[in-house]
Write a structure and sequence with these properties.
Layout: E1 2-7, E2 23-27, E3 34-35, E4 42-43, E5 52-55, H1 58-67, E6 71-74
Parallel strand pairs: 1-6
Antiparallel strand pairs: 1-2, 2-5, 3-4
């Protein structure tokens, strides 16, 4: 069983930063999704894709993975770079 641990990204549609301090543990899909012959919906028999675990810190997520023998790959959060710009810069 393998999983990935990452920090929840900021919602691109809103300026708020709610819930970005949470860390998520998602399982890697064991099989590819395939279309259902009757309805055409994409699906698979892998039930672990539906499990999303949320933790307050990265250490808690790592400890959970270690406790249950889950091989976890941790994706570091890229640093946020702010582009400080004045309104007057639009007219130069």
């Amino acid at each position: 069983m393998s999983a990935r641990i990452f920090q929840r990204p900021k919602n691109a549609m809103q300026s708020g930063k709610a819930l970005i301090d949470q860390w998520i543990l998602e399982f890697v899909p064991a099989e590819a999704k395939k279309p259902d012959p009757l309805m055409g919906w994409a699906g698979s028999g892998d039930m672990r894709q539906q499990v999303v675990l949320k933790f307050p810190t990265r250490e808690d997520a790592k400890a959970y993975a270690a406790r249950y023998g889950i091989e976890a790959e941790i994706h570091a959060t890229p640093p946020r770079r702010l582009k400080i710009q004045a309104y007057a810069d639009n007219f130069r």
